[in-house]
């Protein structure tokens, strides 16, 4: 997260350096070019004055030597030309060679022969390679007899400008480097408690209420925030523990009086009269006592299971190996058929309390409540909403579970639950009207949904298998849990599925 702070600070620093450095760099370039232009302008002005005297008197030897010496010293060809453009004085060869590479030369010479002082040629940008052409008329107004022209190669000047810009850029980077050097450790110091607090929040969202934030690191404000966070978590953990303890203790304390009450009621059976409605009242009382006992057992089991809030990886093969045979026996006793279609090698995150207990509850509901003829258990790996194990493929690809979910579905072709009732079916103590006379507490699916959610998964109800009479579909309970990378066995291959 400290990198995010740097991502904000560094561009600001760059903009600051650019805001200060770019105008300064442009000023340096303009000043360097202007000085060069003024120097050339002074030179051609002086040569124009000498050329006017030399051409009027016919004494051109001294000027010719001075022009040659100028070219020798500075490498700049300077020539005196007449109104037709013919070179009268100066290094003609060097001038003509340089003139051929300058397309702006005719315009400048024409303006100078007309008696004007033209604007300089070329672009002053350091990355441009054009020369600087400066011309000065010889004579004035209608008495112009020629012009003095210089063609200056600006490569050295541009090189100096680039060196200056590099120096300015280096100086501009110094505050940026200093800013980064200061911001990096400061951001680490400030944001480390924030990262730890974020990690603690993630752990708590997974059900670990024992985690606490470090209240000794970082600025004073973050330390106070961490202390408040820890205080809040202490209160939450205590409240949750008291709630669980109350449910468990209340269930335990009510068990003995309820058992005694049931024994007392059942002891009245020999004293019932053959006539009257005593037998009916007796049967209702016994059934209600049995329902209360089942409810207390469910509440106590719920408190025990919900006290386990840690999810751990598990092989689905290992879970099924301990339960498939028992499920087959139960379905055979009830005159039903169990079909299991699970590819080998699936490894997933097991909910608190165990995946086997959740599957047992889903199988039990399908057997007791649906009047189904067929119960089917399937499992698939789903990644990005797409089935990673197509039909007809028995094994799971090595990368099929990367970042995906394992969906375990328990489907039946029984009565099912209306779509409008499925959301309520995952609430505690809810029971379908058609199941009021079937033993149960209405807690099973709700507890399973909570435990699956604690592992980062989801329990949902969908349409099941089509009924044999074509009247609709049964019910499907689908458990979706995060995939855990498969751990190979010593032979290098996952263990085969017991299904």
From TrEMBL:
Keyword set includes Iron: no
HAMP domain ranges (all copies): 188-241
Pfam family, one: HisKA
EC number(s) recorded for this UniProt protein: 2.7.13.3
Gene Ontology MF, one: phosphorelay sensor kinase activity
CDD domains: HAMP, HATPase, HisKA
Entry keywords, A to Z: Kinase, Membrane, Phosphoprotein, Transferase, Transmembrane, Transmembrane helix, Two-component regulatory system
PROSITE patterns with a match to the protein in the record: HAMP, HIS_KIN
SMART domains to which the protein is assigned, alphabetical: HAMP, HATPase_c, HisKA
Annotated catalysed reactions: ATP + protein L-histidine = ADP + protein N-phospho-L-histidine
Segments passing through the bilayer: 165-191
GO CC terms of this entry: plasma membrane
Cellular compartment(s): Cell membrane
Protein's recorded name: histidine kinase
Species assigned in the record: Nonomuraea polychroma
């Amino acid at each position: 997260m400290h990198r995010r702070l740097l991502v904000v600070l560094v561009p600001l620093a760059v903009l600051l350096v650019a805001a200060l450095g770019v105008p300064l760099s442009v000023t340096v370039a303009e000043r360097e070019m202007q000085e060069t232009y003024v120097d050339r302008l002074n030179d051609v002005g002086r040569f124009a004055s000498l050329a006017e005297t030399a051409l009027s008197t016919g004494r051109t030897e001294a000027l010719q030597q001075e022009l040659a010496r100028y070219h020798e010293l500075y490498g700049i060809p300077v020539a005196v030309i007449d109104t037709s453009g013919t070179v009268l004085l100066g290094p003609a060869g060097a001038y003509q060679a340089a003139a051929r590479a300058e397309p702006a030369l005719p315009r400048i010479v024409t303006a100078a022969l007309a008696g004007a002082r033209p604007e300089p040629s070329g672009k002053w940008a350091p990355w441009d390679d054009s020369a600087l052409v400066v011309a000065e008329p010889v004579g004035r107004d209608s008495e112009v007899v020629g012009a003095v022209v210089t063609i200056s190669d600006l490569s050295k000047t541009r090189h100096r400008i680039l060196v200056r810009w590099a120096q300015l850029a280096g100086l501009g980077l110094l505050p940026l480097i200093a800013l980064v050097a200061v911001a990096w450790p400061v951001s680490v110091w400030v944001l480390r408690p924030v990262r730890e607090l974020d990690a603690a929040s993630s752990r708590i969202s997974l059900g670990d209420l024992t985690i606490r934030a470090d209240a000794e690191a970082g600025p004073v404000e973050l330390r106070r925030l961490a202390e408040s966070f820890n205080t809040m978590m202490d209160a939450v953990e205590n409240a949750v523990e008291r709630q669980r303890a109350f449910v468990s203790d209340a269930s335990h304390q009510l068990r003995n009086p309820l058992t005694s009450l049931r024994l007392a009621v059942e002891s009245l059976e020999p004293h019932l009269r053959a006539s009257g409605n005593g037998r009916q009242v007796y049967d209702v009382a016994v059934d209600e006592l049995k329902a209360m006992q089942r409810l207390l057992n469910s509440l106590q089991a719920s408190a025990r299971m919900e006290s386990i809030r840690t999810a751990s990886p598990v092989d689905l093969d290992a879970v099924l190996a301990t339960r498939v045979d028992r499920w087959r026996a139960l379905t055979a006793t009830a005159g039903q058929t169990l079909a299991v279609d699970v590819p080998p090698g699936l490894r997933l995150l097991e909910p608190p309390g165990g995946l086997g207990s959740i599957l047992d509850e889903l199988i039990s509901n399908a057997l007791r409540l649906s009047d189904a003829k067929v119960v089917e258990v399937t499992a698939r790996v789903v990644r990005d909403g797409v089935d990673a194990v197509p039909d007809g493929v028995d094994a799971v690809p090595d990368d099929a579970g990367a970042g995906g979910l394992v969906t375990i579905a328990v489907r039946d072709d029984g009565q099912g639950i209306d779509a409008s009732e499925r959301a309520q079916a995952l609430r505690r103590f809810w029971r379908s009207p058609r199941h009021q006379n079937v033993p149960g507490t209405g807690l099973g699916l709700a507890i399973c949904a909570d435990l699956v959610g604690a592992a980062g998964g989801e329990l949902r109800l969908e349409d099941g298998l089509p009924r044999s009479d074509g009247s609709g579909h049964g019910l499907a309970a689908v458990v979706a849990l995060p995939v855990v990378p498969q751990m190979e066995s010593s032979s290098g291959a996952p263990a085969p599925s017991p299904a």
